């Protein structure tokens, strides 16, 4: 038991150390990227705030790489110090030596899904809002429920709140829509209803619209006007709406089942969100697979040589399995395979492949 605690403690320390190194590198790259991409003259405080909000999402994506590198570092260290040889001489098999790191990987995977996932969802959403605020002077938002779709857009002309009874699959064509347009000072300036609103280039094109002025001292109905076509400026783009409408990673895993139910009740396709939910539930299994892949190539005495080739093989196989997992996710989102198959087959197959390699290395 003491040996298991030793292996677990050493693996956890390596995992945290490598994660910290990657976090520093990721933060530096994000800072350079924000300085290059952000328009205007942002302050260093604003840049650091954006970097801090973007960092959890970046680290969340590279956790499999951190896991496989931590495993490689652990077993290379044990092999060079002959600790693994001594453990085997004392009657501990290689599979028994894996029990402690696998247990730590299970705990890390569970905490990642249960705790880090909601943090990433909250910070990524806040990052998108702040970045749009710094660029356009106001953040956009989207909400979907049984009563319809709600959008908020910002810009130099002021904020606008949009409600639509229904929309197309991309959220770029709204039906039975109403706009409440606010002046830059914050007060309501105009209300517009229309049969349809379609997002064009930096504008909404409204069809069969009626507009009421909401300025103080005016009777709205007396100043109302009918428009066969009315154009309203917009800072929204098709990509920004798609990200808010269809980016499952911006929703915490605990809220995802309810959001899927709201999407389906409102008549929208929730397939991407269902696939993402299953992928997140399968994430701990995939992290265990990355650990086993790293162990399969490095649980060997260093006197056998070719250590560099073994490390390179482990990393390349890990990348290959990662891209197979992403490809399966795309197939699931496109309806080629079921969400459960897209999410669970790659990590389970990766675990079985790694176990086969380990058993072959151990028992020949």
Strand arrangement in the largest pleated sheet: 1-2-3-4-5-6-7
Give the proportion of residues in helices. Answer: 55-70%
- DSSP strand count: 7
Our estimate of the beta-strand percent is 15-25%
| Overall structural domain count | 2
Structural class comes to alpha+beta
Poorly predicted parts: none
Order of helices and strands: HHHHHHEEEEEEEHHHHHH
**Termini gap:** 27 Å
Mean pLDDT: 82
Largest sheet: 7 strands, antiparallel
Radius of gyration of CA atoms, rounded to a whole number: 26 Å
Number of helices: 12
Which word captures the global form?
Answer: elongated
Topology of this protein?
Elements: H1 2-37, H2 44-61, H3 63-80, H4 83-89, H5 94-97, H6 99-136, E1 141-145, E2 148-153, E3 160-167, E4 173-182, E5 188-199, E6 203-213, E7 225-233, H7 238-246, H8 256-265, H9 271-281, H10 283-298, H11 307-333, H12 339-363
Helix pairs in contact: 1-2, 1-3, 1-6, 2-6, 3-10, 3-11, 6-10, 9-12, 10-11, 10-12, 11-12
């Amino acid at each position: 038991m003491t040996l298991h605690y030793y292996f677990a403690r050493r693996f956890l320390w390596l995992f945290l150390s490598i994660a910290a190194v990657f976090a520093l590198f990721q933060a530096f790259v994000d800072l350079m990227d924000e300085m290059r991409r952000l328009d205007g003259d942002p302050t260093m405080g604003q840049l650091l705030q954006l970097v801090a909000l973007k960092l959890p999402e970046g680290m969340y994506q590279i956790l499999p790489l951190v896991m496989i590198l931590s495993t490689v570092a652990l077993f290379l260290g044990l092999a060079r110090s002959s600790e693994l040889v001594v453990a085997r001489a004392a009657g501990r098999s290689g599979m028994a030596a894996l029990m402690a790191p696998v247990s730590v990987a299970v705990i890390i995977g569970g905490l990642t899904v249960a705790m880090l996932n909601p943090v990433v969802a909250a910070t990524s959403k806040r990052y998108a809002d702040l970045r749009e605020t710094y660029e356009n002077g106001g953040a956009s938002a989207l909400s979907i429920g049984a009563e319809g779709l709600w959008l908020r857009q910002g810009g130099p002309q002021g904020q606008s709140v949009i409600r639509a009874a229904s929309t197309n699959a991309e959220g770029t064509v709204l039906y039975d829509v109403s706009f409440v347009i606010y002046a830059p000072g914050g007060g309501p300036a105009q209300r517009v209803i229309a049969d349809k609103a379609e997002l064009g280039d930096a504008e909404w094109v409204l069809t069969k619209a009626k507009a009421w002025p909401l300025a103080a001292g005016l009777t709205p109905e007396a100043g109302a006007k009918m428009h066969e076509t009315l154009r309203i400026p917009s800072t929204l783009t098709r990509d920004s709406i798609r990200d808010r409408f269809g980016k499952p990673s911006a929703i915490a895993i605990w809220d995802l089942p309810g959001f899927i139910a709201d999407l389906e009740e409102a008549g929208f396709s929730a397939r991407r969100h269902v696939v993402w939910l299953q992928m997140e539930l399968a994430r701990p299994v995939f992290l265990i697979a990355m650990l086993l892949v790293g162990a399969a190539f490095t649980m060997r005495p260093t006197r056998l040589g070719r250590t560099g080739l073994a490390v390179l093989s482990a990393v390349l196989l890990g990348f290959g399995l990662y891209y197979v997992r992403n490809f399966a996710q795309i197939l699931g989102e496109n309806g080629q395979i079921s969400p459960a198959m897209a999410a669970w087959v790659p990590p389970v197959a990766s675990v079985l492949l790694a176990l086969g390699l380990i058993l072959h290395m151990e028992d020949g």
